[in-house]
Amino acid sequence: MKIVKKKSESVWRWAILLLTCTMMIGNYYCYDIPAALNSQMDDYFGKPGDFETLFSLLYTVYSVPNVILPFFGGYFVDRLGVRLCLIIFALAITVGQLVVAVGLSAQSWPIMFLGRVLYGLGGENLGVANSAILSIWFEGKELALAFGLNLSIARLGSVINNLVSPELTNSINIQFAFWFGVILCGGSVASCLVISSIDKHLDSVMGGQGHHSLLATEDGDPDNDKEIEERNKVLRKTVMDKAEGHADVLQARASIERSPSFASEPTAAQEVSFRDALTFKQIFWVLTLICVVVYGKSFLLVLYILLIISFSCDFIGCVLPFNNIASALLLERDYFKEPDSACHLTYTNQCQSDSNPPVNCPTSKWYQPPLPTNYTVADVDCTDDYFSDYCTVTFCNRQSDAQVQASTIMSIPYIISACLSPVLGGFVDRFGARAIIATASPLALVVVHIFLGFTTVSPIGPLVGQGLAYSCFAAVLWPSVGLVIEQRLVGLGYGIVVSVQNMGLASFPLIIAAIYAGAGDHYIPEVEIFFIACAWVGVIVGLYLNYVDYYFMDSVLNGIKKRRLSMEELEAHHRASLTNPLFDDEEKVKTFGPNDRIVEAGRNSEGTNQSTSRHRSSELFSTSMIH
Q1: What is the pLDDT of residues 415-436, one digit of tens each?
Q2: What would be the CATH architecture of the domain defined by 272-340+397-561?
Q3: Fold of 1-258
């Protein structure tokens, strides 16, 4: 029988992967429940005049605390231990969803807002702990596979929500649709408990000496504190080094890297502080600028700002806020359209029936049937039996079918993203073209929203385009951030990206709600014009990003060119490798360029020389000089 020396050799790692996927499905599912039930919630709350603003606040209050939290999620994992943090954060989303469900049942917006705040406190940090536990149990190419599968399956949680929540609302009621989310979050807690049990058991089997055991200090013993900190340092270094630049891993790994405490352990001379953000090169801020309008001190510093703003235009401005309103927008545009004014009932003041059929009305089932003159659309509450079973039964049946259809179609971008992210990540790693893709993605979104706002074509084509643009942009953003800042500051850099992203996610829904109200409670075309404007900002910033990358960064984003490390960096890596237990038993060969090799002497357990070649994206790209 093979003796397991570390967790990445245990067959239980596949059970851990399955459990983490289950855990994250609940997280993603509940985040998007309001988006899938937009129009149903409007009916349930009696169609209040400020519904769109109140609805948007459900996403704003989730994002507000996460403007700050991304800087500390990794710290919590470091200090409390990954097992305890998994349980705490899963309990937070469960309690948060429970409060949301109570608030909905009581028709109380303030209670729902409180629940979304609690949910937000756990949701983002659960991603941090999820990434940490995967990095403990997987290594090398298996780490890339684990992160890729986990991210793709987690995204399916949003797809499942879009399909299941409307069906639960129609077959049972809207309250149960929200309480079902509580059940799934309870499943996330159960998954965390099983993960913790397996992880703790294997620690005891290996005598607590398995690689990457990210533990909290329990007994206060200084020697034990030092040992645990050394093991945590190994984990941090492993997460940063072993992913080898895979785009999907970088994207999922961003959760860990959001916290500066999870970056490589700094020396006394390299202590990380928030003032270090002022030293970030321009290319980092270009990435940040793209981030603000998309996913909603030196010249190179401005470039980084622009990249994040461009991402915000594409991701924050055009993807996530669009998904929040997609169901209602598709109902208005495609699946529950208002008929021409000539459409009416034979006897206009009576309910529709076989003896009182509609006249001059479209035959398509995707149009609203006419109502008696004593009712308006705002008066009809299909959650009320009087309307759903008697006077407006045809209206309510068509609305129910339309809601299910709209929720199904709005899932297309997430389905495409879940399927293509691993493929696109490998493509970007192999061929580069990051800045070009970062420009092409918002340009595609311009076309997408022009079609949605100003044509009557089927929404399937535009939403396929949105899914492709979203997948491509996400595949290039996270690796790009890691290429343009120093490794010791990568945690702070990712924290800034995610913080700025949440600033956009907190503000953009309210902007969209204001535009909707100003347009007479219509999404088309005014809200689509806003999305088009955001996408154009992303295009302009992307063009500037390519300019700076080509003329001032030697195409670090668009190329696949590797750089040589400075002598100081080489010495630092050499010293680190000598104390890294992951590679003590073999000769390490690092390759930094086609003609530059550094061999670090070492011997395997039998005393014979052995050579391996290791390529690290964090080592191959410079933030200071490109050769």
Answers
A1: 898 888 767 877 777 788 888 9
A2: Up-down Bundle (1.20)
A3: Growth Hormone; Chain: A; (1.20.1250)
